[in-house]
Design a protein that fits this description.
Strand order of the largest sheet: 1-2-4-3-5-8-6-7-9-17
Structural class: alpha/beta
CATH topology of the largest domain: Aminopeptidase
Number of strands: 17
CATH superfamily of the largest domain: Zn peptidases
CATH class of the largest domain: Alpha Beta
Number of domains: 2
Strand content: 25-35%
CATH architecture of the largest domain: 3-Layer(aba) Sandwich
Oligomer: single chain
Bound molecules: zinc ion
Distance between the termini: 23 Å
Number of helices: 6
Order of helices and strands: EEEHEHHHEEEHEHEEEEEEEEE
């Protein structure tokens, strides 16, 4: 029998900004030794989110094409100029970055600069839109599963954002929480929905947005855990050998009727200025009245306040900074979280993808 040809290569394309800056974007391709599904990873759309690019490079370097069934695409740095600035976007048409920053009040103000609002081919005058179109045609169109790597401002643990149809594939990525944005919206063309995950979903693929837990920095433990999740998903997809594992309980935060996870979510504020001393972890189930954090005075060191669980609930993200101020959000909790997967108690979904290789034996 003739052995199939496996390979690993980078393809690169040059782009030029409106002000004449030339730069390249790279896509890595692994053609596995055997046929199988196609998996696409995109990172670095937002320039202050560096974990995805680092993990995807590690992953691409390490993965042996000889053991892969199918094809893997990685684009670790979709937006190199934004990454260089360590900013969410590359404001290509602006003359003054600091005055541009001051005009931004919310995400929507970023307009066509926000690469993750241009999928798959929204009419854009800028270079971000050109990159999106190249990535879409080259690696998203052929993919069965698309993972978009982002990072939240600050959390203690990573989590996932996902539309309802792709939820069953999320537990393999090794995170403890899946925040569902709900069913695919009636009008998915609105600005907020022109994300890669949503666009992949609408194109009949599995689309998942992975959120690492730090912006403008690198958390070393997430490099290893992140790679573990990528291999584990490939086991679930039957792209590499081995049984996928669920290492920790995975919680699903979903609104049954609504478009977002907000139903059941509560924000807890502190009434005092001080250091919060937390006594619970993110994604720990809490009983009503259980202590979440004590606010300790910076002057007397005494306890000023005890913040407790308002109901039986799941602890969500904690305040990123070390000092809390009166009326500021200390943490969020969710009263309607459900277990999505447990160690030893979760099966690979039998999805009807276009690829025959994803069906179980
Ligand atoms: Zn992002």
């Amino acid at each position: 029998m003739i052995k199939a040809h496996s390979s690993r290569e980078w393809i690169r394309r040059s782009f030029t900004t409106v002000k004449g800056r030339e730069f390249q974007v790279s896509i890595g391709i692994i053609h596995g030794a055997k046929p199988g599904p196609t998996l696409a990873h995109v990172g670095g759309q937002h320039g202050m989110e560096h974990m995805g690019p680092i993990i995807l490079r590690d992953f691409f370097d390490e993965l042996d094409p000889e053991i892969v069934c199918g094809t893997v695409y990685v684009c670790p740095c979709a937006n190199p100029l934004a990454l260089e600035l360590d900013e969410e976007v590359y404001p290509e048409f602006e003359d003054d970055l600091s005055s541009f920053r001051q005009t931004i009040k919310q995400r929507e103000d970023l307009g066509q600069y926000n690469m993750n609002r241009l999928w798959p081919d929204w009419d854009s005058k800028g270079v971000a839109g050109q990159i999106v179109q190249w990535i879409w045609q080259t690696m998203i169109v052929p993919a069965d599963v698309v993972i978009d790597h982002h990072a939240v401002k600050a959390a203690h643990k990573p989590y996932i954002f996902v539309e309802k149809p792709s939820i069953p594939w999320t537990p393999f990525l090794g995170v403890e929480a899946v925040w569902s944005t709900g069913p695919v919206p009636v009008d998915p063309t609105q600005y907020v929905y022109r994300r890669l995950g949503m666009a992949a979903q609408l194109a009949g693929k599995i689309g998942i947005c992975f959120e690492y837990s730090v912006q403008r920095g690198v958390k070393e433990p997430e490099r290893e855990n992140g790679r573990w999740g990528l291999y584990n998903l490939m086991k679930a997809m039957r792209m590499i050998e081995g049984e996928p594992e669920i290492r920790k309980p995975v919680w699903l935060l979903a609104a049954d009727g609504g478009p977002y996870w907000g139903e059941g979510m509560a924000e807890l504020n502190s009434a005092f200025l001080g250091h919060p001393h937390y006594s619970v972890e993110e994604y720990q189930p809490l009983k009503k009245g259980q202590l979440i954090a004590e606010i300790r005075s910076l002057e007397t060191n005494e306890a000023l306040e005890q913040v407790t669980a308002p109901d039986d609930c799941l602890m969500l993200d904690r305040k990123p900074s070390a000092v809390c101020r009166p009326g500021e959000r200390l943490c969020r909790v969710h009263t309607n979280a459900r277990i999505l997967a447990k160690p030893g108690g979760y099966a690979v979904p039998d999805a009807a993808f276009k690829s025959q290789y994803l069906s179980l034996p």
